[in-house]
């Protein structure tokens, strides 16, 4: 069955989606299989819904964006999430990245400064039966001290430097993946690995994210 002339069938659409991920460097089989399973179309509403299977960022509510699928794949892959991991995501947005993480991890805590985004993402998580994600409305730059430390931290909004509280809430042996740099320029996606003696930093690739903004929003 196809879903309309000119659009190709669901299978073809999925194939193109996965091809785009692979050609941008998402090669981890577990990440690809989760991204094949989680329907990005559920996380994009309104005008842009029909573009949900293209490899591009799209606008969501509150003036924010759902990240480009290949960037979600690359960040997830770089975080090397395992089935026993407790993961913190800063920047719930649509909830798509959190849903992908939740299929690979034991538990995901996700935080956004917009209550509305948290509410809407929670509705999608329950529709998908993803019961291992807890979403909070809070300023994620302070992390979640009550649930720390974390095996993995994924930040999907750009700060100039890795926020101190997030570094402190990373377990020894833990990995944090985040964009750093000014919001109106190209930023660097970096991976921070914590070891006994401190932190190692790897630069992964250039990216563009919305800024990490201080404080809870009014909506
Ligand atoms: N991960 C999301 C994309 C997030 S866009 C997805 O998969 O759709 C970045 C998000 O970070 C926005 O929703 C924005 O509201 C949020 N954000 C920005 N600053 C924040 C902060 N200090 N604390 C928590 N969330 C923040």
UniProtKB/TrEMBL annotation:
<comment type="function">
    <text>Catalyzes the methyl esterification of L-isoaspartyl residues in peptides and proteins that result from spontaneous decomposition of normal L-aspartyl and L-asparaginyl residues. It plays a role in the repair and/or degradation of damaged proteins.</text>
</comment>
<dbReference type="InterPro" id="IPR000682">
    <property type="entry name" value="PCMT"/>
</dbReference>
<protein>
    <recommendedName>
        <fullName>Protein-L-isoaspartate O-methyltransferase</fullName>
        <ecNumber>2.1.1.77</ecNumber>
    </recommendedName>
</protein>
<dbReference type="GO" id="GO:0030091">
    <property type="term" value="P:protein repair"/>
</dbReference>
<keyword id="KW-0963">Cytoplasm</keyword>
<keyword id="KW-0808">Transferase</keyword>
<comment type="similarity">
    <text>Belongs to the methyltransferase superfamily. L-isoaspartyl/D-aspartyl protein methyltransferase family.</text>
</comment>
<keyword id="KW-0489">Methyltransferase</keyword>
<dbReference type="InterPro" id="IPR029063">
    <property type="entry name" value="SAM-dependent_MTases_sf"/>
</dbReference>
<dbReference type="Pfam" id="PF01135">
    <property type="entry name" value="PCMT"/>
</dbReference>
<keyword id="KW-0949">S-adenosyl-L-methionine</keyword>
<dbReference type="GO" id="GO:0004719">
    <property type="term" value="F:protein-L-isoaspartate (D-aspartate) O-methyltransferase activity"/>
</dbReference>
<dbReference type="GO" id="GO:0032259">
    <property type="term" value="P:methylation"/>
</dbReference>
<dbReference type="GO" id="GO:0005737">
    <property type="term" value="C:cytoplasm"/>
</dbReference>
<feature type="active site">
    <location>
        <position position="67"/>
    </location>
</feature>
């Amino acid at each position: 069955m196809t879903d309309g002339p000119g659009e190709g069938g669901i299978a073809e659409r999925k194939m193109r989606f996965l091809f785009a991920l692979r050609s941008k460097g998402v090669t981890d089989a577990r990440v690809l299989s989760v991204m094949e399973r989680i329907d990005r179309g559920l996380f994009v509403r309104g005008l842009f819904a029909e573009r949900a299977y293209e490899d591009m960022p799209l606008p969501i509510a509150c003036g924010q964006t759902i990240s480009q699928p290949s960037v979600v794949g690359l960040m997830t892959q770089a975080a090397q999430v395992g089935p026993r991991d407790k993961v913190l995501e800063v920047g719930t947005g649509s909830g798509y990245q959190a849903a992908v993480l939740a299929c690979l991890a034991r538990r995901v805590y996700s935080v956004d400064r917009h209550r509305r985004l948290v509410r809407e993402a929670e509705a999608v998580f329950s529709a998908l039966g993803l019961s291992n994600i807890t979403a909070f409305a809070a300023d994620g730059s302070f992390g979640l001290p009550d649930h720390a430390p974390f095996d993995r931290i994924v930040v999907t909004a750009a700060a100039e430097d890795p926020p101190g509280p997030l570094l402190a809430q990373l377990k020894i042996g833990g990995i944090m993946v985040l964009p750093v740099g000014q919001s109106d320029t190209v930023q660097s996606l970096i991976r921070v690995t914590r070891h006994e003696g401190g932190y190692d930093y790897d630069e992964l690739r250039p990216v563009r994210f919305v800024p990490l903004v201080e404080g809870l929003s009014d909506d």
